[in-house]
Write a structure and sequence with these properties.
By secondary structure, the protein is α/β, with parallel strands linked by helices. The protein has helices at 17-27, 39-48, 65-73, 89-96, 113-134, 151-160, 196-202, 227-247, and strands at 9-13, 32-36, 53-57, 83-87, 103-108, 141-145, 165-171, 174-181, 184-190, 193-194, 209-213. The chain has two domains: 9-130, Response regulator (Rossmann fold), CATH 3.40.50; 136-247, no CATH class. The protein contains eight helices and eleven strands.
Length: 248
């Protein structure tokens, strides 16, 4: 799986130096990482150099995660920054769950690093797409390379953002078109292949170009799974194919 270029800045906040280092190492391949040892340190760093995403522990001495969130929400320059909170299940339900504006998700303690990184990567991918859209040469059209952002990441980002659009993928002389409605891949065509088969085939591409056109739509429905379902089935088929290769 490809990872996006490091255009997204993420601030990680935790008063436990071991956890802080662990999460920073996990996120480093995906983004530009900055760390802060507590809420007060984070506040100063955000004001000096606003990140695109904050991953913050809740319980910290002095300024805790929720207070950091509220202070940043009170400033027009920083109120848009999304948060991922790490906290105990009790604190999530009792103290943090009511926070909905700009909170991407909650990660309950204890957590597996790969689970946190997987969740954060979806947000990083979505933010990366939004930055591409801001730089688009044509209104409503995003272009890029699959080496920069893979097809799985693109599809997950479109599903997470509930986007409606046409995703065009090109490799050499081949072209695949996938149409999304509210984040769900409804129609796909690749040469003579349509629907699920076209999706499964194009998901093997690791290089090429992509274009997302938010002005294009299709009424056709040729797929039989949700976007997540298509990705999961493609992974199962790939694992099955690899297993058969090993056996033979």
């Amino acid at each position: 799986m490809t990872t996006p270029l490091k255009t997204i800045k993420v601030l990680i906040v935790d008063d436990n130096p071991l956890v802080l280092d662990l999460v920073a190492r996990g996120m480093n391949p995906l983004c530009q990482v900055t760390t802060a040892a507590d809420g007060a340190d984070a506040l100063l760093k955000v004001i000096d150099n606003p990140p695109d995403l904050i991953i913050s522990d809740y319980k910290m001495p002095g300024l805790d995660g929720r207070q950091l969130y509220e202070k940043l929400r009170g400033r027009p320059q920083t109120r848009h920054i999304p948060f991922i909170f790490v906290a105990s299940r009790g604190d999530i339900e009792g103290k943090l769950r009511p926070l909905v504006d700009g909170v991407e998700d909650f990660v309950p303690k204890p957590f597996f690093l790969q689970d946190l990184v997987r969740l954060a990567k979806k947000v990083v991918d979505r933010l990366h797409l939004e930055k591409l859209q801001e730089r688009a040469s044509r209104p409503g059209v995003i272009q890029g390379r699959l080496e920069e952002m893979g097809i799985t990441d693109l599809m997950q980002s479109l599903e997470m953002g509930q986007k409606s659009c046409r995703l065009t993928l090109r490799r050499g002389g081949e072209q695949c078109e996938l149409y999304f409605a509210a984040g769900q891949c409804k129609h796909a065509v690749l040469g003579s292949l349509e629907g699920d088969a076209a999706v499964y085939q194009v998901l093997t591409w690791t290089e090429g170009e992509f274009e997302i056109d938010f002005n294009s739509a299709s009424d056709r429905v040729t797929t039989t799974h949700s976007t997540t379902g298509l990705l999961m089935e493609a992974m199962r088929l790939l694992d099955e194919a690899n297993s058969n290769k090993v056996e033979s």
